[in-house]
Model the fold of this input.
Amino acid sequence: MPNPIYLDHAATTPILPEVREAMLPYLGDLFGNPSSSHAFGRAARAGLDQARMEVAEAVGCEPREVIFTSGGTEADNLAVVGATLAAAQRGDPRLVAVSCLEHKAVLAAAHAVRAMGGDEIILPVDGAGVLDLDAVDAALRRKPAVLSVMWVNNETGVLQPIPDVAARCQVAGVVMHCDGVQAFGKLPVDLRTLPIPLFTISGHKLGAPKGIGALIVRGRALVEAIIHGGGQQFGIRPGTENVAGAVALGRAAKLARAGQAVEAKRMQVLRDALEERLRAVLPDIHIVAEHSPRAPHVLAVCVPGTDSEALLMHLDMAGIAASGGSACSTGAVEPSHVLLALGVPRELALGLLRFSFGHDSTMSDVDRVAEVLPKVVARVRRLHGELQRA
Done:
């Protein structure tokens, strides 16, 4: 069998050698607690401070605005629930507005606000998967505690008009949160030029390990802590910091910023090539949001007469790793809420495949998928036909 092909970088990425090298000392001799005042603690603190500076320089904010978390999910919850708690302390309503395409971390956080006695506004999108800006304006008139919109959808790659939404929030005096997990490193991101008070990134989408992320908090009063303990990280996210993880995220963020333009162009060439090849070998394939603005690293397709689980199993047997959508929704028997929001018919949505590219993806990967997928589709359709006749 040929070497395995990994095309699921939107789910997670392999750790980059430079990142591994940067974090290793903090898993060994530099093991101190960064809150300790002795030499061991000071050495750990120095690594943490350097990591915070690297993240800040990469995204365009101040080091004091970088709050390390256990990943994107915690950062999203801190933004949505933490901003709601801060609003409640000011005597403002516990109201949040989120797009219908958000990651489950944001949607579940919004549902949690409702369970706390608050309320949520779910913002619709059009058939192209782009946010309805009239609905945004209507939501802003209700003065939510926070309005949360992801920049790049993790299942389809569709881009949202984040600069426009950020400007509208700023004029309305409403705190905006942007889940930038799939955007940073793939798109130009500079918070110096964007009025986004709360911004999420995740390490394992950038070549850092799992279990580390950050929320950029551009003002201490914007959020209240959602976990409680000591005074670490300005009291916003208490607890002994994951120094090795933070160092890894800092280095990964620095590399992602430096290589963004070149990598984005390279990945878009690969994505467009795969899209063209699949159209040729599978004429009835449905390219999700094909006329929408999309990030360069994600290609989502639906294959009529199939289902994701069977397609992925046969692709895996052929040595190709892809996804049926969000890795946080695996095991779900229902079609993606994202595709349904885009108006994709349920039966078609059940055949979703997501191919996502990374730094180690090559044109030979594209060639291999274009060769194997038609055979896999034929096999799955044949099995479906046999089941229906049984």
Q: What stands out?
A: The longest strand covers residues 95-99. Residues 49 and 63 are 8 Å apart (CA to CA).
